[in-house]
Amino acid sequence: MPRFIALFSLFWFQAPFLLPCHPATEPGPSPIPLELHVATTGKDSNLGSATLPFLTLERARDEIRSLKQRGTIPAGGVEVRIHPGRYTVRQSLRLDASDSGTATAPIRYRAAGAEAPTFSGGARLRGMKITTDPEILARLPEAARGKVWEASLEAAGVTRLIPFELGGFSSGRGFVTHPAMELYVDGSPMTLARWPNDEFVKTGDVPGPQTLTAWDKRPGSPEGRFRFEGDRPKAWINEPDAWLYGYWFWDWADSYEKIERIDLDAHEITLAKPWHNYGYRKAQRYFAINLLSELDAPGEWYLDRKRGCVLLMPHKDPGAADIELSVNPQPMLETDGTSHVRFQGILWECGASDGIRIRGGEGVALEGCTVRRMAGTGIEVRGGLNHVIRSCDIHTLGRGGIALAGGDRRTLTRGGHRVENCDIHHLSRIDHTYTPGVWVDGVGQVIRHNLIHDVASSALRVEGNEHLVELNEVHHVILESDDQGAVDMFGNPTYRGNVYRHNYWHHLGNYEGKGDASHTQRAGIRLDDAICGVVIQGNIFQRCSTGRSHFGGVQIHGGKENIVEGNLFIDTAAAVSFTPWGDKRWHDFVAQSLNAPAIDRQLYLLRYPALAKLAEDNDRNTIRGNVAVRCGALFLRAPQVTESRDNRELPQGTEFPEGPDGRLAWSMEQAAKFGLGSIPFADMGMMEDTWRVRQGTAWTLRTAATTAAGARNP
Fold first, then answer.
1. Residue 20: per-residue pLDDT
2. Which of 228, 143, 124 lies closest to 183 in space, CA to CA?
3. Is position 360 within any domain?
4. pLDDT for 430-445, tens place per residue?
5. What 3-state class would DSSP assign to 561?
6. Are 507 and 572 in contact, with CB atoms under 8 Å apart?
7. Does the N-terminal or the C-terminal CB of the chain have fewer CB atoms within 10 Å?
């Protein structure tokens, strides 16, 4: 079903992406760089030395610009050493082409001590007290009175408030980051006051014209009006800025909608324009948000803009807690055309927008860094070449973890960006769908050795050509939306040469089979609407589709020439599921694919000879050498043209137990017995390197101070 709104339009596969990412020989020692120092005790009028440090990164940046203009940058480049402490951020640190280093003399911004320097876009709230304001008490639920605390924004130095306006995948306001203020207590995000507190309710009748139809035959209306049951909205009549969040037509298309009017007599809610792009229909999920009248549970909060205060029902005495409100509406760091700059061992947090944006340039690296507690996406890379995000912790975000696009699809030029050894988790807090751990676009990116978990959306959204996804571990993703995969690809038969190998996908979606039985379409890897030529090799799919599932560990919707080979499927409802299209639908869909302006027809036919017969052999895929252990079925809805060879189904009682943490208790002997001895289970997920170390069962980042020598020659 058509649905994707492309974020990027950038996009060759060559065998080089299979080569090691480091040179075969170790380089010699690098020349010593010039040092500049930044400290919370510094002054921007200082010299920038260890004893007289600067106060801000902007001052260090400007000093480097001056040194370059004078021609006094040494052969080793420049190293800005950032000493521990908390640095307040109220505007982006912006770098452009003039701030670039070179491949042999890079510019480094790195932590100087044993503790990561923290750049915060938040304001600390102190002096909270139980609210006694009669107007606030009158609007609070009776049970909450005497339990809600307040803090003055003026006392915290907060003078500018970000308007409350959110979007979502199918919002008429656009699928982009909408800056939003959030409240954190001891590092945990609080919940903006909502109803119901933990679940959804369903829309009633939709009275507008029933002019929207869909494959499931349930009609809908383009008008933002629906009826409700009960009298709960009566309490919302005087709310100045009440919003609803929901899946208004499809269970994968969410948006926030502002309430314009509540008609209590007709039991009808009218939403403010612009309306949801797909329309509205009966029995769809939603909840209400940003309502002081619903502040009734520990951990809920509300921003009273009229009175200039934050209201919180705390879990514990707020006097003993670190309470922070995100107030910076800009990214913490932006580079535009910048090359050969590295950021090492730095922590950015508590921003009201995206964390870091990288545009163009070459060889920008984030290593051993942390990006957390942002309202938007953690890191966005658009364009440029060979940017690297390595061994970073990226978590607690309102949208996705990393958005990564580079290269050119028309010329099949590779972007060469890499995301390696990162821990990416607890995402999609504000926009719940199509905000994955990593969004990949363009040509020739590599996603390797990452751990992605606890995401309402997918782990990966993959667009474009010749991307390599290998040796990652993914669990507890696609937790809310339906008709999704831990990997989601969609809608373009010229996306070719993408490889998924040796990844561990486990405990995905509603793997326990709880709650709404309609949520049955969640896969490990989902090739949606005519995706072709994908190789899925040597992966493990454990508890990826369970119960009343319409999807298998791998779901193929209409595509052809995909190869699913040598994978282990264990404790899933089915190994591979299909949704065949048939001749007419296929021919109609692909008729103009090779004439799309985003590609060069002749170049694509030369690079991918199979495209010459794109209209032939639809629904033909190769499934071979796979093992299904304790699965409900090997195939669901497999078309007759499926090429199935050497696949084995093993019954209940077959050894391959789970460990205490639910992960497979892997046995090389058992794997070899099943013909799966080439699967490198021990190498899947994160690994120790210059920046990351394993301590027991936990992974932690090393401090920049202990990695300085290795960091100069990674």
1. 39
2. 124
3. no
4. 999 999 999 999 999 9
5. coil
6. no
7. N
**Counting beta carbons within 10 angstroms of the beta carbon of residue 290, is it exposed (0 to 12), middle (13 to 18) or buried (19 or more)?**
buried
Residue 513 lies in a domain: yes
Q: How far is CA 5 from CA 174, 463, 482, 526, 597, in A?
A: 10, 11, 18, 17, 17
653 in a structural domain: yes
> Rounded to 5 degrees, what angle do the CA atoms 186, 190, 191 make?
170
pLDDT surpassing 90 at residue 686: yes
**3-class state of residue 394 by DSSP:** strand
Report d(CA 556, CA 527) in Å as an integer.
Answer: 5
How many C-beta neighbours within 10 Å does residue 32 have? 12
Task: Out of 274, 297, 324, pick the residue that ends a domain.
Answer: 324
Contact criterion met (CB below 8 Å) for 511 and 478: no
Residue with tokens 């203009």: 69
pLDDT score, position 509: 87
DSSP type of residue 613:
G
442 CB burial (10 A radius; 0-12, 13-18, 19+): buried
Rounded CA gap, 4 and 6, in Å?
Answer: 6
Instruction: State which residues form the domain around 638.
Output: 473-684
Q: Is the dihedral of CA 189, 195, 198, 202 positive or negative?
A: negative
* 516 φ, ψ (degrees, to nearest 5): -65, 115
DSSP state of 163: P
Number of structural domains found in the chain: 2
Residue written as tokens 């995905």? 508
Question: Six-digit token pair at 638?
Answer: 């497999």
How does the average pLDDT of the chain come out, rounded? 92
Task: Determine the Cα–Cα distance for residues 260 and 243; give it in Å rounded to an integer.
Answer: 9
Q: Is 76 helix (H, G, I), strand (E, B) or coil?
A: coil
Give the whole-angstrom CA distance, residue 173 versus residue 256. Answer: 9
- One-letter amino acid of 248: W
- 357-376 burial, b if ≥16 CB within 10 A, otherwise e? bbbbbbbbbbbbbbbbbbbb
Concatenated DSSP letters for 98-116?
GG---SSS-EEEEE-SSS-
Residue 646 φ/ψ region, left for φ over 0, alpha for ψ in the -120 to 50 degree band, beta for the rest: left
3-state class of 237 per DSSP? coil
CA distance 403 to 427: 13
Strands (E) across 345-476 are located at 347-351, 356-359, 365-367, 370-374, 379-382, 388-390, 393-397, 402-408, 413-414, 418-420, 423-427, 438-442, 446-448, 451-455, 460-462, 468-470, 473-475
Which DSSP symbol is given to 609?
G
- Cβ neighbourhood burial of 56 (10 Å; 0-12, 13-18, 19+): middle
Given 305, 324, 343, the domain boundary residue is 324
Cα distances (angstroms) measured from residue 89 to each of 82, 327, 351, 454: 15, 9, 9, 28
Q: Are 128 and 322 in contact (CB under 8 A)?
A: no
Residue 228 lies in a domain: yes
Tell me the one-letter amino acid at 30: S
Per-residue pLDDT tens digits for 276-291:
999 999 999 999 999 9
Average pLDDT rounded to a whole number, residues 676-702: 93
In 141-189, where do the E strands start and end?
149-152, 183-185, 188-189
Residue 58 structure tokens: 């902007």
CB 635 within 8 A of CB 578: yes
Q: Give the CA distances from residue 71 to residues 107, 337, 397, 569, in Å, rounded to whole numbers and listed in that order.
A: 15, 21, 41, 60
Asked if 13 and 444 touch (Cβ cutoff 8 Å), the reply is yes
| Radius of gyration, CA atoms only, the chain | 26
Please state, in angstroms and as integers, the Cα–Cα distance from residue 35 to each residue in 32, 38, 49, 365, following that order: 9, 10, 7, 19
Whose CA is closest to 176, among 89, 255, 91?
255
Q: How confident is the model at residue 15 (pLDDT cuts 50, 70, 90)?
A: very low
